[in-house]
Amino acid sequence: MKKINIKINKKNYSYDLLIGTNLLNILPKKLKAISPKGQNVALVFDKKIPNSLKTKTFNVLKKFKRVKIIINPSEKTKNIGSVNTILNLLLKNNFNRNDFIINVGGGITGDMVAFTASIYKRGINFINVPTTLLAQVDSSIGGKTGVNNQFGKNLIGTFYQPKIVLIDTDYLKSLKKKEFLCGYAEILKHAIIHDKKFFNWLEKNTEKIINFESQSIVAKAISWSCKIKKYFIDRDPNEKNLRKILNFGHTIAHAIEADSNYSKNINHGEAVLIGMLLETQLSCNKKICRIETYKKIENIYSKNNIFRYLKIKFNFSNLKRIVKFMENDKKNDDNKINFILLKKIGKTTIPGEIKFQKDNLLKELNKLRNFNL
Ligand SMILES: NC(=O)c1ccc[n+]([C@@H]2O[C@H](COP(=O)([O-])OP(=O)(O)OC[C@H]3O[C@@H](n4cnc5c(N)ncnc54)[C@H](O)[C@@H]3O)[C@@H](O)[C@H]2O)c1
After folding, report:
1. Which of 73, 131, 236, 275 stands 20 to 30 A from 268 (CA)?
2. How far is CA 8 from CA 30, 123, 237, in A?
3. Is residue 367 within 8 Å of residue 285, measured between CB atoms?
4. What confidence score (pLDDT) does residue 266 get?
C-alpha cells in the first residue's frame, strides 16, 4: 500500500490517500480513528459497482449502523435534486456531525456526495472510495465538490476536503475500457504539465494501463499522477493561482461538453483528450511550443488507437460554436478567455499569462488543423 499525504492551508489540515489492492478491511479502524464518536455510516454506491463488491463494502462496516443509497450517475442527475435525496436520507436517520458519509463511486457520485457532506449540518465526515480511474487520479483529490444546473456544469459547489481517500484498484476490474481511457486522459495531463520523466514512462506503458494489463503498473500510474495533483493542491488548495495549471486542456474540454449539452456521446475524459491536443496546437501556433512536442503527444494517441477506441469523431465546425461556452467558464475573471498553454513537456504557461479576446480566439481556433491520428 502507498500513502500520500495531502496538506491543505499551510499544513493546518491534512488527509491521506491510500493506494493499493484489498484495502477495504482497514476502513473500520480508520473511521474509528477519524471520529471515535461516529456510529452511523451512509454509503452512497454507484449502481454499476458489481453487487459482490457493494456487499463486501457494506459488510466490512458491520460494526456501524449503516444505510445505503444507490445512484445511477449522469451529468443530468448530478444536480441539487439528487443532493436533496441524500440529505433527506441523512436527516431521516438522524445523522450528526460525528457520523460518516462514504462515496463508493466515480467522479459524478463523488462530487455530489462531497457537496452533500459539506452542507449537511455545516459539514459531516466525508470518506471517498473512488471507483473509476478518473476519480482515483483526479476528482477524489483536492476537495472540489459540486453539482450542475441548467446554467452549466459544477456551478454550484464548495471546497470541502475528505477525511481519507481509499484508492483500491480492485474496483477497476469492472470498469469499461472507455472509462479507463477517460481516467488515462487526466494521468497524461498530469505528465504533460509537470513531469517529463512520467511522460516518458507513459510513452512505454500506456497500452498496459488502458488495457488494465497489470494492476501494479496501473497503481504506479495512479500514485505518480496523484503526487502531481498533490503538488498543485498543497500549494494552492482554493485554486487562486497555481492550481489553475491543472486546467490544461479543460478550457476547450468544458466548452465541448457544454456544446453537446452534457450528452453521453462525449464525456469529460473524452473532451479532455480532444482539449489537450487542441490547446497544444494553440500553443504551437502562438510559437511558445515546438511542433515536435505536439507530435510526441499525438503519437501516444495514435500508437494506442485512443480515438478509435473511443469512437470520437470531433467536428471542427463546432469550434465556432464553443467559444460562447468558453466565455461562461467560471475560471474567467475578466472578459477575456483564460488558457493554460504548453511550453514543453513538463512546463506550461503560468495562470493569467495567456488570455484571448473572443474575436481573436475565433481566429486562432480557425487555424487549428485536424488530428493526424
Ligand atoms: N472534483 C473534481 O476535482 C473533479 C475533477 C475532474 C472531474 N470531476 C467530475 O467527475 C465527473 C466524471 O467522473 P467519472 O469519469 O468518474 O464519471 P462517472 O462517475 O459518471 O463514472 C463513469 C461511468 O463508470 C461507471 N462506474 C463507476 N464505477 C464503476 C466500477 N467500479 N465498475 C464499473 N462501472 C463503474 C459509472 O456508473 C458511469 O457509468 C464529472 O462530473 C466531472 O465534472 C470532478
Report:
1. 236
2. 20, 17, 6
3. yes
4. 86
Residue 139 grid cell: 476528482
Spatial distance between the Cα atoms of 299 and 306, rounded to a whole number of angstroms: 10
pTM, two decimals, is: 0.94
Give residue 312's pLDDT: 75
- Give the Cα separation of 261 and 255 in Å (integer): 10
Any ligand 1 atom below 6 A from CB of 132? yes
What whole-number distance in Å separates Cα of residue 341 and Cα of residue 322?
18
Q: Which amino acid is at 298?
A: E
Ligand 1 centre distance from Cα of residue 13 (Å)? 26
Task: Provide the CATH number for the domain formed by 177-366 in this structure.
Answer: 1.20.1090.10
The DSSP letter of residue 152 is E
Q: What is the pLDDT of residue 358?
A: 79
Count CA within 13 A, CB hemisphere, residue 117.
Answer: 29
Residues 6+ apart with CB under 8 A from 283: 289, 294, 341, 342, 343
Burial 348-366 (b: 16+ CB within 10 A, else e): bbebeebebeeeebeebbe
pLDDT digits (tens, 9 = 90+) for 62-96: 999 999 999 999 988 999 999 999 999 999 999 99
Q: Which CATH architecture has domain 2-174?
A: 3-Layer(aba) Sandwich (3.40)
pLDDT-flagged residues of the chain (< 70): 9-11, 328-334
Task: Quote the cell numbers at residue 354.
Answer: 495567456
Q: What is the 70 CA–ligand 1 centroid distance (Å)?
A: 14
**At which residue does the C-alpha cell 493526424 appear?**
372
Q: What is the dihedral of CA 311, 317, 318, 322, to 10 degrees?
A: 140
Predicted pLDDT at 333: 61
Give dist(CA 343, CA 284) in Å, integer.
8
Closest by CA to 171, choosing from 21, 321, 272, is: 21
Domains of the chain: which residue ranges?
A: 2-174, 177-366
The reply to whether ligand 1 has any atom less than 6 angstroms from the CB of 257 is: no
Mutate which of 53, 77, 111 to test ligand 1's pocket (most atoms within 8 Å of Cβ)? 111
Residues 244-253 as b or e (16 or more Cβ within 10 Å = b): bbbbbbbbbb
